[in-house]
């Protein structure tokens, strides 16, 4: 009591002194207020705290009252959903708040500002997620006065100037932010695809939030490139809607990002499987579709990327360096070795480079009707021709065949003549295709799945067969493109001469028969053109040449056109016989409208089957299990030396426990070595003599430095040499 009276008197005295100081010297008081504000903010609590610290604590401090948490029931959710459909602001806010808690379900909130609704059951979580993802777009559109479906960036810009947007525009941001959190944090592919499919309806509103738009584009590019099932297609359709609805701001970002994501997927080994080839073909079709949205803007990006390919090829071609006088020695010339040249060639003969060429071939062919993209056909043709002629070796015949297919596609799409026959006829002049193979029959070779073959495969009959059939197919396709030209006789003269010479030199009957069939069809087409142009009165320079055999060309009734159709079917049957997949390189791109309807039907069928609560609970449980097992491993292996830069996969399922039990059983049986300084793995515990030896070894190890590295490996004498004693 006396202490409290003294404290009150002291506090009153200090207060009066401060008031007196303010009246007498206001400048000094202002200085104290700026420099040492704590001195002026004097109160009784500070003195009480100081006195309590000097004395022993007499009572336990009271805990701060926790914020009350209300559980969310199904009745509350039903009332909110009905109110949100009627346009009530309070119900919409409550539903979005519950949606936020559902999106962050199972996460630890470190701050004290947790929402008042934090507890919900699994059925309530599913109800909230399904309602928000299905109906929140329509609800917010009615509230904000936006169009009922779709829209453009200009409409959103006008909407942002209204009072309704300033009041309730943040609700749309809350919805989009939490949906993005679900897309980036979930691991279940079906849930991610369903979320992207539903949020796609609100894509146009991302024009109002530029930072959120960039995050969405980044997340969608990742799910498009790395996802499986319906997720890549749904992500691409979302990106396509963003490019169409948002406009130029999003288009440039998507065109750059989708090309870089495509490059990442093209980093492959020497050979690839059919499923990976299908995936890359689908991704290429997506890039082609996105670049066709706005050809004028896409031309700038395509020009830059094609120029990069040309720069790489030019660097490889100039790797040998400029020519030097012959009087200089080999060292002075600085000529690179064969290994250096082969390493430089691998920059071009790489899957990433080859797939990029095929991508831009499909883009240029798909946009060949556009005037903006037609100028890119010429430099792309020069690059492909340079790649085909870079290394004239039989080991790189698969790359040359791919280049010929690309050139045929460009010629057919643009209607320009490209001298492809010389690339194919040069292959027939090489000894690997003319002579008898020395390596036997060999395994079947699929030139689609490889870019380079080894020296042993080149000498096999299977490789010779695959190359000759490919030459026949591509040469027939090239000649069939011009089988309606009035100059076909002159165009086919040199190929016919070289094909006849090859038939005379080849010794295999089946290859000779294949070549004779091609020669017969070419000669039949020559007679077909000669008979038609015999009754023509105009000259080759006359513009009327364009109308020559126009009806026959639409009906595709020439002998070579019918022959190419049979060859195409035969080649497809041969590929299906070698592989289980049916992938055709250069085939027509998939119809996105048909695939969209299939995916949408699948999403609608699985809509009620998707259980967000089960998946989120499973993810939360897995996360806890992983953390517990990580801690357990850390405790168990504190004394065991570990190697640096070693990362082990964390097994979350029950297989890890079985592996640990198996390891314990093997240790008890003595079959697995024990990582210890002593030689326990040499001791039989059932032998008394060995037990005594074990005790002696332990006693001796106390006086000798331990070598943990040597305990892991046992020294054994060479079987042919006797151990020295």
TrEMBL record:
<dbReference type="Pfam" id="PF03715">
    <property type="entry name" value="Noc2"/>
</dbReference>
<feature type="compositionally biased region" description="Basic residues">
    <location>
        <begin position="711"/>
        <end position="725"/>
    </location>
</feature>
<dbReference type="InterPro" id="IPR005343">
    <property type="entry name" value="Noc2"/>
</dbReference>
<feature type="region of interest" description="Disordered">
    <location>
        <begin position="43"/>
        <end position="68"/>
    </location>
</feature>
<feature type="compositionally biased region" description="Basic and acidic residues">
    <location>
        <begin position="595"/>
        <end position="628"/>
    </location>
</feature>
<dbReference type="GO" id="GO:0005634">
    <property type="term" value="C:nucleus"/>
</dbReference>
<protein>
    <recommendedName>
        <fullName>Nucleolar complex protein 2 homolog</fullName>
    </recommendedName>
</protein>
<comment type="similarity">
    <text>Belongs to the NOC2 family.</text>
</comment>
<feature type="compositionally biased region" description="Acidic residues">
    <location>
        <begin position="43"/>
        <end position="55"/>
    </location>
</feature>
<feature type="compositionally biased region" description="Basic residues">
    <location>
        <begin position="690"/>
        <end position="702"/>
    </location>
</feature>
<keyword id="KW-0539">Nucleus</keyword>
<feature type="compositionally biased region" description="Basic and acidic residues">
    <location>
        <begin position="56"/>
        <end position="67"/>
    </location>
</feature>
<feature type="region of interest" description="Disordered">
    <location>
        <begin position="594"/>
        <end position="725"/>
    </location>
</feature>
<feature type="compositionally biased region" description="Acidic residues">
    <location>
        <begin position="641"/>
        <end position="684"/>
    </location>
</feature>
């Amino acid at each position: 009591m006396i202490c409290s009276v003294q404290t009150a008197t002291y506090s009153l005295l200090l207060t009066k002194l401060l008031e007196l100081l303010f009246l007498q010297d206001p400048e000094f008081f202002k200085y104290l207020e700026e420099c040492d504000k704590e001195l002026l903010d004097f109160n009784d609590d500070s003195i009480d705290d100081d006195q309590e610290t000097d004395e022993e604590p007499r009572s336990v401090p009271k805990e701060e009252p926790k914020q009350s948490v209300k559980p969310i029931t199904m009745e509350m959710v039903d009332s909110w959903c009905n109110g949100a459909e009627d346009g009530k602001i309070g119900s919409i806010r409550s539903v979005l708040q519950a949606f936020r808690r559902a999106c962050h379900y199972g996460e630890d909130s470190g701050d004290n500002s947790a929402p008042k609704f934090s507890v919900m059951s699994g059925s309530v979580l599913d109800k909230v997620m399904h309602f928000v993802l299905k109906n929140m777009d329509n609800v917010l559109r009615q509230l904000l006065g936006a169009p009922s479906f779709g829209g453009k960036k200009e409409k959103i810009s006008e909407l942002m100037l209204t009072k309704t947007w300033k009041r309730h525009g943040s609700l749309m941001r809350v919805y989009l932010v939490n949906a993005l959190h679900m897309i980036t944090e979930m691991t279940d592919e079906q849930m991610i695809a369903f979320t992207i499919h539903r949020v796609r309806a609100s894509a146009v509103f991302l024009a109002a939030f530029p930072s959120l738009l960039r995050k969405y584009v980044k997340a969608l590019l990742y799910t498009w490139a790395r996802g499986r099932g319906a997720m890549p297609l749904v992500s691409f359709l979302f990106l396509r809607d963003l490019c169409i609805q948002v406009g130029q701001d999003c288009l440039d970002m998507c065109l750059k990002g989708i090309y870089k994501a495509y490059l990442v997927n093209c980093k492959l080994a020497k050979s690839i499987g059919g499923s990976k080839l299908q995936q890359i073909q689908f991704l290429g079709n997506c890039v082609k579709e996105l670049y066709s949205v706005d050809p004028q803007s896409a031309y700038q990006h395509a020009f830059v990327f094609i120029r990069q390919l040309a720069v790489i090829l030019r660097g490889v071609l100039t790797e040998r360096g400029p020519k030097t006088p012959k009087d200089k020695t080999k060292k002075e010339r600085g000529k690179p070795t064969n290994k250096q040249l082969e390493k430089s060639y691998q920059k071009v003969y790489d899957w990433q480079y080859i797939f990029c060429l095929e991508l831009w071939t499909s883009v240029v062919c798909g946009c060949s009707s556009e005037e903006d993209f037609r100028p890119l056909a010429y430099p792309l043709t020069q690059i492909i021709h340079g790649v085909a002629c870079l290394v004239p070796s039989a080991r790189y015949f698969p790359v040359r065949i791919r280049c010929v297919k690309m050139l045929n596609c460009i010629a057919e799409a643009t209607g320009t003549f490209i001298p492809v026959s010389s690339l194919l006829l040069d292959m027939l002049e090489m000894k690997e295709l003319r002579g008898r193979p020395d390596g036997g029959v060999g395994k079947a070779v699929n030139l689609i799945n490889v870019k380079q073959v080894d020296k042993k495969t080149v000498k096999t009959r299977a490789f010779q067969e695959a190359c000759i059939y490919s030459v026949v197919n591509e040469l027939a396709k090239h000649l069939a493109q011009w089988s309606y030209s009035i100059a076909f006789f002159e165009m086919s003269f040199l190929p016919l001469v070289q094909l006849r010479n090859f038939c005379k030199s080849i010794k295999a009957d089946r290859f000779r028969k294949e070549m004779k069939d091609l020669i017969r069809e070419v000669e039949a087409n020559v007679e077909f053109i000669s008979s038609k142009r015999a009754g023509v009165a105009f000259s080759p320079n006359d513009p009327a040449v364009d109308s020559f055999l126009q009806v026959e060309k639409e009906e595709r009734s020439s002998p070579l056109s019918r022959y190419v159709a049979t060859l195409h079917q035969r080649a497809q049957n041969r590929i299906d016989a070698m592989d289980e997949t049916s992938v055709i390189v250069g085939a027509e791109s998939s119809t996105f409208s048909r695939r969209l309807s299939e995916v949408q039907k699948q999403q609608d069928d699985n809509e009620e089957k998707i259980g967000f609560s089960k998946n989120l609970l499973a993810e939360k449980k897995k996360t806890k299990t992983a953390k517990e097992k990580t801690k357990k491993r850390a405790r168990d292996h504190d004394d065991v030396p570990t190697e640096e830069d070693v990362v082990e996969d964390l097994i979350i399922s029950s297989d890890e426990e079985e592996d640990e039990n198996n390891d314990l059983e093997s240790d008890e049986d003595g079959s697995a070595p024990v990582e210890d300084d002593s030689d326990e793995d040499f001791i039989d515990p059932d032998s008394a003599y060995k037990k005594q030896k074990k005790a002696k070894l332990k006693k001796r190890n106390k006086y000798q430095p331990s070598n943990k590295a040597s305990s892991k490996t046992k020294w054994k004498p060479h079987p042919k040499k006797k151990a020295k004693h």
